[in-house]
Amino acid sequence: MKAFIVDRYSKNQPLRxxxxxxxxLRPDEVLIQVHAAAVNLIDVKVRNGExxxxxxxxxxxxLGHDVAGVVARVGPRVSQFKVGDAVYARPRDLRIGTxxxxxxxxxxxxxxxxxxxxxxxxxxxxxxxxxxxQALVERAQLRKGQKVFIQAGSGGVxxxxxxxxxxxxxxxxxxxxxxxxxxxxxxGADVVVDYKKEAFEAQLRDYDVVLNSQDEKTLKxxxxxxxxxxxxxSISGPPDPQFAEDSKAPWFVAxxxxxxxxxxxxxxQRLKVHYSFLxxxxxxxxxxxxxxxxxxxxxxxxxxxxxxxxxxxxALAYVESGRAKGKVVIKIR
Length: 333
Known about the structure:
Blueprint: E1 2-6, E2 16-19, E3 29-39, H1 41-48, E4 61-62, E5 67-74, E6 86-89, E7 102-106, E8 110-112, H2 119-123, H3 126-139, E9 147-150, H4 156-167, E10 171-176, H5 181-187, E11 191-194, H6 200-203, E12 207-212, H7 216-223, E13 226-234, H8 241-246, H9 251-260, H10 262-270, E14 274-277, H11 284-296, E15 303-308, H12 312-321, E16 327-331
Parallel strand pairs: 9-10, 9-12, 10-11, 12-13, 13-14, 15-16
Antiparallel strand pairs: 1-2, 1-4, 3-5, 3-7, 3-16, 5-6, 6-8
Helix pairs in contact: 3-4
């Protein structure tokens, strides 16, 4: 099968287009014929080697974290899916590889594709949808009447998280550039801070939840917009001791994580707020609930550009540029 491969960790080396064997199917996995795969910033960071401590992929490996396609084969222990089902998924860490004609995914990470959207739109959902769900529903337990600040509202996670937060009944604030103000307002944002003209820390006060996706400088400013007892959930780091424990990180890696997050955790303690790091996990059951929201019209995919499979490196470069509004997708079949 054709695939795009990381031969060695590098910021400058493009992925190699090559022919590789189809993935071996484990008993609890489905083999998905890939129709579309989304590109995420984590793909860039994994290629660059920024996650080697957390995700020690052995090169060469196939990149790609999001998939929509059709079930081509099922393992003997699979009971929920059959050949021909249209599905979408975010495969487990260390089993990624959606920039290919086929990918294997554990049954418990797969769900039936929402019926009212295309394969390209479905591929745009899993990683950002699960990230927003696990941050706002699971971790923050966001509820009606609360206030949430979602950074970078026009990005992949932001466009989904704004819609999910509004569905949950929250008041939503976000940041974006001048050209994207109408986009985020159209998604439901109540308060929009144009970061080119204003400082969000001067505009926002007494928020219950912050979803942080930016650098540590922005994170520390964001802690100050929370009310006492509020919760900042960061998807961009730094990892905290609880994440090290949950991921069963080796002792030395856990110590590195503790050191990286020390100043942030100390500031949060001083401000009487909570800080936690979230590293999203694949979940078919959550994707099933997300599919219901999409089919009901509560959430719509936001796709910026669709690239052909042969332009996978160009799609990665576009995501890395930070110019994307919503998601970038590769059409494979």
